[in-house]
């Protein structure tokens, strides 16, 4: 049975001599593959061991490159990666909020990698995923991982009964964190909280609800701007689909993957550069 | 102009002699009201000063009682609170992810309150809101506030260009954190990822997407169980509406606030006790 979350008895920081002991303790079962997972359940663990030229390790944030397309002989990227198998497993972690164990190995080129052996570095959530052209020129799938900090601050008086405290703590985590910005509200108001794809308006006890979707995402590595020409007003359903490759938008605002076109207020300029970025990174096919 | 987030030059932990200086520095403008905000923009700050018998302060988590319904003479609750004005402002913070400044005052009955004067204790997000019968017997609105921890962990090698680092950091925050649990997936699979309200299925590049909605929420103070009889399979649109009082469900599964009924698989037992909890706390009217 695949174990998601911490493995009982193996605290964060535990060190292992080699891939064999790592596997024996159930921290990362496969002896060779970097991603342990299935495309039904998601990924339970990954090993960072310097295999991919495109990986980036900032400590709390990791840009991890998917699996596949490399020559077994030279280790070089020789074909496009696909969103299948272990890559699809990591995408499911993102959509479902399943945490993944991260292990850093001695071959991994980062100042915080262990000098020898392997170290279990705790749980990360898969914050987002996308495709891009890698350094090799072939398509790679990338996953932004963010560390899950589980401890509460020290000024907590009486710890409330937390969902993290019960026996299922390792299964429970964080999913789809949305960032609302200063300009988000102005775009929602421009459309009177109506979805630009389906024109639905969500009514709640506090009034109308819509979501602001950044076309080229905020934050590294995308670093899209928080500007009105990069923001759409969407209902939650179409926001999920837009973020997870369910549809994209052509320069003439025709929808790709859905019928029809994007509704746009005349005064709302949408920058085609950001639409192109979305198509290249988040559409089903480049 | 209402300032959301930190006030420039006023770090967390700053102390103030009285409500007048608190107001002068722009940390909390009103001299008497506990909530500073408007029902268009949201709330920018609140003061905890022991006014409400129902408040709870766990440090990182605060259960805050809304405004209204108290006698000016005795200070006792003498009428129902409504989701209007400053209470509606705090509800908007929840829906939009706007952070609220929290100030603790000397009158507040918590071990971490200052002995004298007022202390700015940083930014909190409004995690959820609901109504209930207060200790007085009247309806009160309650808001679960959770502290926003802004610092990254010390093992970060090279801090990535974070959205928290630019000049708009105070506007940007976290919204609608969803918790997926062990049993969530089994309920989604039972419905083949089809929404129990509208039967829509959301298609993404990683397959079908649905959300698991806990009827009586997990975590304090609701402490609903993570069990299949407390979980629904919903599309993101109906999940938002369900969490924010857009509709509720009668014991016979008729929808309240929407046309029609909830679709249910014969083998899926939904516990009427949790439906009742939802109606009492999240429906528009008790």
Describe the structure.
The first copy, chain A, has 2 domains: about 160 residues, SRA-YDG (PUA domain-like); about 100 residues, no CATH class. Helix content of chain A is about 15%, strand content about 25%. In chain A, strands 1, 2, 3, 4, 5, 6, 7 and 8 form an 8-stranded mixed sheet that branches. A two-stranded antiparallel ribbon of chain A has the order 11-12. In chain A, strands 13-14 form a two-stranded antiparallel sheet. The relative contact order of chain A is 0.12. Chains A and B meet through α2, β9, β10, β11 and α4 of A and α2, β9, β10, β11 and α4 of B.
Quote the average pLDDT of chain A. Answer: 86
What CATH first level of the largest domain in chain A would be assigned? Mainly Beta
Spans of at least 5 consecutive residues with low confidence of chain A: 152-176
- What is the chain-wise order of helices and strands of chain A? EHEEEEHEEEEEHEEEEHEEH
Rg of chain A (C-alpha, Å):
21 Å
CATH architecture grouping of the largest domain in chain A:
Roll
Question: What is the gist of this entry?
Answer:
2 copies of one chain form a homodimer. By secondary structure, chain A is an alpha+beta fold. Helix content of chain A is 15%, strand content 26%.
What is the element layout, followed by pairings?
Two copies of one chain form a homodimer.
Chain A: E1 15-16, H1 19-24, E2 35-38, E3 42-48, E4 56-57, E5 61-65, H2 85-96, E6 100-105, E7 118-133, E8 139-147, E9 173-175, E10 178-180, H3 184-190, E11 202-204, E12 207-209, E13 211-214, E14 231-234, H4 236-243, E15 248-249, E16 255-256, H5 272-282
Parallel strand pairs in A: 3-6
Antiparallel strand pairs in A: 1-7, 2-3, 4-5, 5-8, 6-7, 7-8, 11-12, 13-14, 15-16
